[in-house]
Every structure is written in C-alpha cells, then in structure tokens.
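Page 37, top half.
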Amino acid sequence: MSSLIRPLSVVTLACCANAAQALEITAGDYEPLPVGMNALLLYFQHAESSDFYQQGSKVSDRFKLRTDVSLLRYIHSIGLGENVVVEPQLILPYGHLKASGDAGTLGSTTGTGDLTLGAPVKWTLSTANKDIFSLAPYVYIPTGSYDRDDALNLGENRWKLLLQTAYIHHFNAKWALDTAADVTWFGHNDDYSSNSSTLKQTARYEYQTYLRYNFSPATQFAVGGGRIEGGRNRVDGVSLDDRTDTTYVRAMATHMLTQTVQMQVEVGRDIEVEQGFKERARLNLRLAKLF
C-alpha cells in the first residue's frame, strides 16, 4: 500500500488543512453576547482517521491520521442598534498532525494554523420567541506554519474568505433549532509542494443544523450534524478530481460551571466520505470565560 503515498499526498495536504481549520459551529454559538461583554475561549480538538477514500471508493483502511489542535478565540460584543450587535473576533490555532500506517511516510508536523479574523453581525428578530439571524464574514490570513516540502501543514500559505449565515429558531424556552450555511473562497497557493506548483481550489460549501434542548438555565444538550461539498483542487492547471462530499454527526453538552465560566464537550464522526480521510472519532472540548 506504500505505493499510494505519493499520488495521495497532494490530496492529503488539502484535507489536513481543512480538517484543522474548518469553521464548524456548535449549538448556541450564534446567540448574541450582551453589549460590551468579552469572551475568551480555549478549544481542544482531537480526531482520528484510518480510512481513505478516492471518488467514493475506499483505497486504504490503514491510512491513519491523528489530529490534535488547540484554538484560542477572543470575542467582543459591540451594539449597533436596539436589536443588532457585531462581535469582532480572532481565532488562532496551534496543533500537531501525525500520519502512520500506510500514510507513515507523510510524517508529522507541529505548528500554528492561519490566523482568522471575523465579525459576525447578529440580529434579534421580533418573532414570538426572539429568533436570531446572523451574517458572518471570516478572513483567513496566511500566517501559519508552512513548508512546501512537507506533506502535512497547519498553515495553508493562501488567503481564504468564508461567509457564513446562521438562523436560530426558538420554539419555546426549552427547544431551539440552530442552522448555518457557509461558502469558502480560496486564494492561490503559489508555493505548493517541492516543485513550487500553483494550487487552486474551487469554492467549498458547508451546511450544519443542531436541535438544542435547555435542560436547565445552566445546562443544554444538542444533536445534529453537517455536510461539506465542493472544493475541487487543481495543481498547475491539472484537476485532481477530488471534490469533497462529506457528511458528519455531532452530539454535545454545555454547562455553566459558574456564572462566567462555561464548559462544552462534543463528540462525533464522519458517516459518509467521498474524498479524503474519514474520521472515525472526534472529541472537542471548549472552555469559555465571560468578562
């Protein structure tokens, strides 16, 4: 199976970068913060993969990748009107990627991911239970660790723009449905692989939804998932025919440890993959401090 390493390594780089820096939401993320409030969040994300797919067919069940990524996120809420806030924020990833099994020659890497700047605008609507609508632009700045000679990188050496919309429907005080959709546009990586090739990628789309239950004022549970589509790559004008088509599921619990400290635990996995790694297990932890 070692003969797979070279033809798959081109695809692997894109897959790893996306896995480390995808902008998934969790249930309740788009509830507005009170005006003037700050939030400092620390994430830890662990994921393991062993199956690798090309065009819907499994080509290896020992193409292993372990991803451990921490993210630091700062948010500040600014009032724009009676029912509108904007929440400027920054996200800085740091992590470790390690390949093994049939993918062992891809090696491992440790470093920072690309700095992300965002400014979600959130409207509280005059519906019966105060639904929320949000429009959120995010810019990925190519500041992360990147080496064209490495198959695995945390940084992508290119600019990205993500535009995300979200809607929260509050059925009542206990139940809510969080939905989000986004599109990511990619700049060119003009220093891709040891040949300094040019990597171009078409737009990628993601759709997410979660059903949320408020067990108490301090505790909530949610289940849901999402789907990622698009993002076909071209290297020096040659298509890799590697369009992403991935479906995943998630379950999470959130609890306020104190009035200003929140803990969230999330588990999940991929259930269908057309191209790239299929995550067999994912654990996300989040600690948030409000001030």
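Page 37, bottom half:
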Amino acid sequence: MRIDGVFSGGGLKGFALVGAVQELEDKGYRFQRLAGTSAGAILASFLAAGYSGKEIESMLAEVDFQSLLDPRKTLIPFSFMKWIALYWRMGLYQGKELEMWFLDKLARRGVYTFSDLPPGSLKLVASDLTNGKILILPDDLERYGIDAGNFSIARALRMSCGIPYFFEPVRLQAAGETIVVDGGVLSNFPMWIFDGEDGKRERPIVGIKLSRRKEEMQGRTIENALHLFEALFSTMKNAHDEKYISRELEKDVVFIPVDDISSTQFDLDDEEKDNLLEIGRLRTRQFLTTWNAGRPLRVIYGGARY
C-alpha cells in the first residue's frame, strides 16, 4: 500500500524512526512522498533516494558519529575557543563533515539535487531566522532567487539539521544573507506539509514522532539556567505542531517515547542504538493494530473541519 510519511526531528534519537520504517516496510507499506525535520529529514531523504530501512540501519551502524563533529582548527585550546566560536560563528561545529557524509551516501544512489527525484516527493523543513519563518525545501527556494531543482539535497539536510549553538548556522546567500538553522526551531513535526488546499489528502499519511502523546507528557523540573534553556527550546519547537495535531489527526501518528536519550548524544553505544530501533518497531507494530488507513482523508484542525 502506498502512503506518505512525515518524520519528526530528534537528533540521535532518530534510530527509533528507522525501526518504525522497518516495521512499516515489513507490513507492505511503501512511501510515495516523504517529509521531515532534522533527523526526520535525513531519514526521508535516504528513503527518497531508494534506501530501505534495513540498509539505513546498516549505514548508520558503520558511521562514527564523533567523526562528523568538526570544530574549527586553532592553536588556542578548544575549551577556550568554543566560547569564541559560539560568539562569532554561532556554533561549536562547522557541519562540513556532516554535509559531506550526506553527499556521499546520496551520491551512491545517484541523487545529488532535488531534480534527481520525482517532483514533490521530498520536502525538508528548516528555519529562516533572518525573516522569522519556516523554510520548506525545495518549495520555498524560488522566493530567495535560487533554482530549487538544482539545489543540493545534502546542503538542504545540513540546513534542516543545524541544531542551534551546536552546529554553525547555514548562511544562505541569495538576495542578501539569510541565517538558516534546524527546522525544529519552528516545526519539529511537519504533519501539515502534505495537506491539500481543499482539506483533503491524496493518500493516507503516517507521521512518526519522537515523543509521548500530549496527555502522557509530564511537567518539567526547572532548577537552573540550563534547565530553563532546554524548557524554552522544547516549548518553542513544539508549539506550532501541537496546535495543529488534533485528536483525530493523532490517529495517524506513531508516538515513540525516547526521554532517556539526548538529541546530541553522538557517543551512542550499540546497545542504545538497538534499543532505539526496537522501540520504534514495537510502537509501530502497536500503532498498526488500530490504524484505519481507509477512513476518509479529511484534514481536521482542533476538532473543526475545514
């Protein structure tokens, strides 16, 4: 059965997304269109390029994630230089190694730019901080005077995965300079992205979100400035999407609780990776026992029909 897939961000927690995709593939589902933010954008792009869930698992098992962290070279000790980097470069790591890894893996399937894929089959979300708006790639690039078809998917992924302060933001040179960071800042779970203007969907959509259901979430303990920053960022990145997802739309979402793993935990061991994969498979298996792919494909906003 053909479906559309939407994947949330979540950094290294994204192993659970891979497990979820594997379960869907095992049950005979195939993706027609794909969309995602950050880690979800990576998975969506690899699937669009023709990789299977099993192949993506093998690919991720081979990579040393620590090698993708590339601070700028300097004679000054890193413990001091990192504060300089944060102030002037706005990030600890350049992100070049990450982008080159994306480029290499996509090139192995003959995919370099959005023109190498069927039109509309892949949509990635980033955040335009200069203009304060969500940036959908490749759809919105024309507004910046950029040829969308010839835009590098690896570059688009680098933009969607630019965790603020962790990676340097991408400076999009168009009509002036535009600062672009992780899509999760404005929409971490773009479940809205394939909705038609008439309120209908072309086919069933399955969303996979790295979090608990809203009613299952517990309040945060905020005792210091770091806790405050984490709470601010988490609230900000979820506010837009939580407003969109109604009770009815929740029926199309696989919720995967991964509270005990950090998004930037680049030193995951094999056991932690396997656990994330398995919880993704398990939650998707449970979801499929009740999911009704054949119900009317109408979009519901906050309980009201439009």
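Margin note: The two ends are 27 Å apart (CA to CA).
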